[in-house]
Each structure stands twice: as structure tokens, then as C-alpha cells.
Amino acid sequence: MPKITLLLIVSLLAAVAGAQAQKVQLIDKQATRETKALYQNLWRLSGKHTLFGHQHATEYGHGWAGEAGRSDVKSVTGSHPAVIGVDFSGFSGSSPEAMERAKEAVRQNVVDTYNRGGITTVAWHFNNPVSEGGFYWKDSVSLPAVKYIIPGGEAHAQYKVILNGIGEWAHSIKGEDGALVPVIFRPYHEFDGDWFWWGKAHTSREDFIQLWRFTVTYLRDSLQVHNFIYAFSPDNRFNSEAEFLERYPGDDWVDMVGMDNYADVGRDQYDIETATRKLKIVSDYAVKKKKLAAFTETGLESIPNKTWWTKTLLPILKAEGMRLAYVLVWRNDIWSPTHYYAPYPGHGSVPDFMEFYHDPFSLFEKDLGAIYKRKKFLGVF
């Protein structure tokens, strides 16, 4: 064999070995082919890009609801967001008929997104299962539900029924190719604040970790849900890796780490340096542990700063060493004239958003390609 050919083969094999060494792994060893492919492709893309996401983008927007194929982002740019946020909020706490309607509506949304080639992330504004008060903590009525629903708690069986409903739903979301649709599941978010019943003031560290581990284990191992990617996302109330990990359930129970941060990007202050530093803690941990990282929620309500997209958000995402799968801004309310986080046609930030859209760093749905298929090189995935 000619020396040049042998050297080329050795180099190629070394490249393959290096790529395999960098490969990230899901906590679910039985994850579906499409879920594994999504995870690997998000890791690959996050090396040079960040995907743009918007909560409830295709369900409703500024002044409209329920129009097939529509989103405010698409109306502005011609493309849906790469990541669409939905919610399990309607999956419990109401009549069986209402819950079934909610599950079907979310199922159809998730399947439509998959069939287009987009990605879904699921939040869970979980109505308190043992008291009134909804998902927020209300001093007059709310009970600290975590201790009731973990194993050994008096409402544990009730919690399993709720999870059974989520598991059944997870087995129902099939694309037009017949495959189960992968979703990024982000339960119990912003747990370091006190506004939700699962927040820091209302449960111990040990009970929160037990709740998280049980939830993942029951869905994955007992209910055989193999199309979930599990995301852990506190609010921005940390200043070090140790503080970020204070209620972390462990690497065996988390696929993605994230942060929600509205305060440092314009809601309370413009502090790009602080927002970047905190997000870099998240990104660095993910890289170290070979997990995905994301800016799981952010945004500026009403977007009064017309250059917020390129002068505030983009510099954070592009910071040196930052590696993020996606950034997601919050929803555009149907009725409110002020509660929206993405531009709509005619909004003053549209020119700047278009600059953000055209930047090669940001990816939208039309940019994704075969996100649910793994890339093959020399016969090796």
C-alpha cells in the first residue's frame, strides 16, 4: 500500500476516534434512534451556532390564535423558530375531557413541528396536585406538594397517575414517518425561586432531588418513555458552579443544563457581563460533562429596546467559549398589547431581528435540515 494512502487512512481513523471521544450520550440507553440523532446533532451544531426558539410560537401570537402554519416569527422572517416551546400545564388539574383536549392539542402541535423538521421543548407549569393555587405559590392556599408526591408521600400514587398520563401521551406522538417524536422535557424549572410550589422555599434540597430522580426513572424505566431529553434549568440566582449545582440531581438524571434569565437582559437591569458569566457557568459544565446546554428562557417584554437582538442577546450567545444548543424567548400573548417577547410584523425591533435572523450564527427551522438523522462517516455514526 502506498505510504501516502496509509497515512491518509491513519489520519481518517484518528479523526473518527476523536469524534467518537467527543460524542455526547443520553441518560436513556434505550432512547429512540431519532432522539439520539437529535441529541448528537444539537451537540454538533452548538459548536458554531445557536438555534432560536419561541414559546407557544405556533399555537398563538400577538392578536391571533389557532391558525395553521402561522407564527409571528414566520410572519416576520419567513421561517418558524427552530425550537417551539409547548407546555404540559393542561395535562392535570382539570376535568378528564379538558385534559384529553389539551393532550391532543399539544400532540398535534408537536407532531406538526417534527414533520416540518423543527424541534419541541416542553415546559411544565404543573398545577399543585394537593391544593388550590395553581402552579404559583399562594400563601393563603398552597401546600408544599413535593413532600406529598415523592415516594412515601401520601399523594405519591396520585402523582404516578399524572405521570402515567404523560407517558401515554409520549407514546402517542408519532410523525408521518411512523417514528416517535423526540422532545426536550424541562420539568420543575426556576426551582431556585419561590414563585412556584416546587421552589426553594417550599421544599428541601433532598426532597427536590428525590422528586426529579423519581420522575425521570418512572417515565424512562417503568413507563418505557424513550423519546425524552431531560433538561435541568434554574433561574439566574447563582454565581458559581457550586451554587448552580446545589439542587442538581446528578449526571445520571440530566441530559441538558440550562438557565432562565430575564433579570440581567433588560427586565431589571442591562448587565450583559453578568448574564454572560452565569450562562458560561452552565455552558462550561455541559462541555465538561459532555451534555447539552441551553439558554432555556429569556427575553425582554414588549422589546422596547429596538436593537436588543444584536446588541444584548447576540453578544451573550457569541461569547468566547460559549456552547449553547438553543435560546428560547417567552410567548406572545393573544390579547395583551404589551406581553410579547418576539417581534411581529410592524414592530419596531423587526429590522434588528432580521439582522439577528440573517447572522450565520443563529439557526431557524428552515436551516435545520435532517436534524433527526445521524451523520455517518466511514461507516461510523
Topology, please?
Elements: H1 3-21, H2 33-45, E1 50-55, E2 60-61, E3 64-65, H3 72-77, E4 83-87, H4 96-116, E5 119-123, H5 146-149, H6 156-170, E6 183-186, H7 205-222, E7 228-232, H8 241-244, E8 256-260, H9 272-289, E9 292-298, H10 308-317, E10 326-329, H11 350-358, E11 362-363
Parallel strand pairs: 1-4, 1-10, 1-11, 4-5, 5-6, 6-7, 7-8, 8-9, 9-10
Antiparallel strand pairs: 2-3
Architecture overview:
There is one protein chain. The chain is an alpha/beta fold and 381 residues long. It has a single domain (3-367), classed as TIM Barrel (Alpha-Beta Barrel), CATH 3.20.20.80. Helices cover 36% and strands 12% of the residues. It is built from eleven helices and eleven strands. The chain has helices at 3-21, 33-45, 72-77, 96-116, 146-149, 156-170, 205-222, 241-244, 272-289, 308-317, 350-358; strands at 50-55, 60-61, 64-65, 83-87, 119-123, 183-186, 228-232, 256-260, 292-298, 326-329, 362-363. It has an eight-stranded parallel barrel with strand order 1-4-5-6-7-8-9-10. A two-stranded antiparallel ribbon has the order 2-3. α9 (272-289) links the parallel β8 (256-260) and β9 (292-298). α9 (272-289) packs parallel to α10 and α10 (308-317) packs parallel to α11 (350-358). It starts with a helix and ends in an 18-residue tail after the last strand. The relative contact order is 0.17. Mean pLDDT is 94; it is low at 6-21 and 377-381.
